[in-house]
Amino acid sequence: MRTFLDANPYEIITIFIEDNVKAPSGVSKVLQASGLHKYMFPIARLPKNGEDWPIVDDMIQNNQRFIAFTSKESKEASEGIPYTWKYVVENQ
Questions:
Q1: Could you list the residue ranges forming a coiled coil in this record (predicted)?
Q2: What is the dihedral of CA 51, 28, 11, 8, to 10 degrees?
Q3: Distance CA 70, CA 24 (A)
Q4: Which residues, at least 6 apart from 40, have a Cβ–Cβ distance to it below 8 Å?
Q5: pLDDT average, residue stretch 40-56
Q6: 40 neighbors 68 (Cβ within 8 angstroms)
């Protein structure tokens, strides 16, 4: 994914992690080691209380083109990885 983002500066990747990692900061360590961390969209910029999502152009201009969500609610506080169901809805 890092190679793709390096080669495609106008693309954005979003992933949903089914998080079964038990190691402390395990997912964060993998993202850091992979080089994806430099592209991470900061959790502080995610919408709150029904706010709008950021504009794609802003994400591209700020080079914040990678969003990873976790299935473990506790990882939001411990690793700074957003909990999926706090920010995403799913319809049937």
A1: none
A2: 160
A3: 14
A4: 31, 64, 66, 67, 68
A5: 91
A6: yes
Q: pLDDT tens digits for 57-89?
A: 999 999 999 999 999 998 889 889 999 999 888
Secondary-structure breakdown of the chain: helix, strand, coil percentages, each rounded to the nearest 5: 40, 15, 45
Name the strand (E) or helix (H) holding 69: strand 66-70
- What's the predicted TM-score (pTM) here? 0.85
Of the candidates 73, 84, 78, 66, the residue with the CA atom closest to the CA atom of residue 23: 78
